[in-house]
Write a structure and sequence with these properties.
The protein is an alpha+beta fold. It has 5 helices and 13 strands. The strands form 3 sheets. A 6-stranded mixed sheet has the order 3-6-8-9-10-11. The protein is globular and about 50 Å long. The N and C termini lie far apart (40 Å).
């Protein structure tokens, strides 16, 4: 079934969730607007997959769950539903009241940047994410070059930004107690810079 969306209509969150169950594609919901999510490139998919595997392996038998691409989350203070590329959630999982498919207690989110979405991922989406008190780390990963921006909550209303731009560097995710080599994150990725594969 193809979801028919009227661009000017304002939808309730209940209408959105009902339509989303019937849809073959994923949509974000932003304060009444339903926005289709575009498909990713092979690099986008592979980087998100690499990160998921690295996190899943490192966090095995620890107090976290890792989700990849299709897990919806809700940000109640701004009435927004979205699907991060990768997210880490503390156990026990907390769901939106009355649902078993929409999470609310994420602590780490990673987005692989696309030209069409990077301004949104850096700006409005980050603003929405940080309204959640459980959210402490944010990764913005470039798919065309080795470039990872790591944002860490250091205090209320205070975030520290670090950048990683070399395969020799190691990303430290202190809130969940693991390290990820940048070379592993970009393993087997065809970069636009000379189409080199790490």
């Amino acid at each position: 079934m193809i979801l028919q969306i009227e661009p000017t209509k304002i939808y309730t969150s209940v209408e959105y969730l009902t339509l989303e169950l019937e849809s073959e594609v994923r949509h974000e919901y932003i304060n009444g607007a339903i926005i289709p999510m575009t498909g990713g490139t092979p690099n986008h998919n592979d980087i998100a997959g690499n990160l998921y595997v690295l996190l899943k392996s490192a966090l095995r038998q620890k107090n976290y769950r890792v989700f990849y691409v299709d897990q919806r989350l809700w940000i109640p203070s701004v009435n927004r539903y979205t699907y991060p590329d990768v997210m880490v959630v503390s156990k026990p999982i907390e769901f939106q009241s009355g649902r078993t498919d929409t999470l609310i207690n994420f602590c780490l989110i990673a987005e692989v940047l696309s030209p069409s979405t990077q301004a949104y991922d850096r700006g409005d989406k980050f603003t929405a994410y940080r309204t959640m008190p459980t959210f402490t780390e944010y990764l913005l990963i470039d798919q065309h070059q080795i470039q990872v921006e790591h944002r860490v909550r250091t205090a209320e209303n205070q975030w520290l930004i670090s950048e990683y731009n070399s395969p020799q560097m190691t990303l430290k995710l202190d809130s969940i107690g693991i390290e990820i080599p940048i070379a592993d994150l970009y393993a087997d990725i065809d970069l636009d810079q000379g189409n080199l594969t790490l």
